[in-house]
Design goal:
8 helices; seven-stranded mixed β-sheet; two-stranded antiparallel sheet; Rossmann fold
């Protein structure tokens, strides 16, 4: 996660509207990944065409990547995330183990602070389970992981999209054979201009746009650039992020894009369709209601 970009704070005084972002609802939508945070709604035609899944940002949830791989077993899954690695998860597990073996933990038990002791044990179990799951994920033959982030500049922690694309395959990458998943906490605005140089290879994308309360103008600009070549086929508000002040628009939007050239059917206006879609969408935070979107 990176710090909040304050260069666009003037957006707070500008009206926000989803007018122009109503999805084109096609009949091949499917949910990939968890029912909740970490899952996205895609077009099945994207999955069928994909030979390479480029995944930017996995944190501690790679259910999307595993589900995608189950649906398309011959796809190559290439993940990038500078914030996690086996050593990071192992370190968290060992720290939790040390806490559970410490005098402080013993005092919790002796003082009958059982809720505090249970929290420590739960934390240890969580990190041990996460480390094992991540190790199994990396052992999948078609999965590659790089502990580097993605941005518009290359340095010790980050690659540009062009550099990340070069590590996908040593062979020529066919047109429309790449699907991009991007959840990188604001860096999406830095990466997309570079990504658009490779649009001929990309069949679709699931992008999570963050901090729209301060980046709304930038979001509209970037989304319009993407819409020149890609159709918005699904949109969902992440209810962990809250709403933009004085609006009903979520601060975080999950948007699915499909290459326009892959749409062969006649498009029928479906203005009466409301979002979220009950059969496909699910609140990221199950303790709160999903956000209804107005276009």
């Amino acid at each position: 996660m990176i710090g909040r970009d304050t260069r666009h704070l003037d957006n707070l005084s500008q009206p926000c509207s989803l007018n122009g972002f109503r999805p084109t609802l096609l009949d091949d939508l499917t949910r990939v990944g968890h029912k909740g945070d970490g899952g996205y709604v895609l077009n099945e035609r994207s999955i069928r065409r994909t030979q390479y899944l480029m995944s930017f940002g996995i944190n501690d949830d790679w259910s999307f990547e595993l589900d995608f791989l189950q649906r398309k077993p011959d796809a190559k899954v290439v993940c990038f995330d500078y914030s996690v690695s086996k050593s990071v998860f192992r370190g968290n597990m060992l720290s939790a183990l040390n806490e559970a073996l410490s005098i402080k933990f013993a005092l919790l038990v002796l003082s009958f602070n059982l809720s505090g002791a249970r929290r420590k044990i739960s934390e240890l179990r969580y990190w041990a389970r996460t480390y094992r799951r991540f190790s199994r994920f990396l052992s999948e033959k078609n999965v590659r992981f790089y502990d580097r982030g993605i941005s518009n500049e290359q340095n010790g922690q980050f690659l540009t999209f062009a550099e990340a694309f070069r590590v996908v395959s040593s062979d020529a990458v066919p047109e429309d054979s790449v699907f991009v998943k991007m959840d990188i906490e604001q860096s999406e605005f830095r990466v997309i201009p570079d990504l658009l140089r490779f649009e001929r290879y990309i069949n679709g994308m699931a992008i999570e746009f963050h901090d729209l309360d301060i980046l709304w103008t930038k979001f509209v600009e970037v989304a319009k650039q993407l819409q020149a070549k890609f159709e918005i086929t699904h949109i969902h508000g992440n209810n962990y992020g809250g709403l933009i002040p004085n609006s009903e628009i979520p601060r975080v939007l999950e948007i699915t894009f499909l290459k326009k050239s892959l749409i062969r059917e006649q498009l029928v206006a479906r203005e009466n369709v409301s979002y979220p879609l009950p059969e496909l969408d699910s609140p990221n935070n199950h303790r709160e209601k999903d956000y209804r979107l107005s276009f």
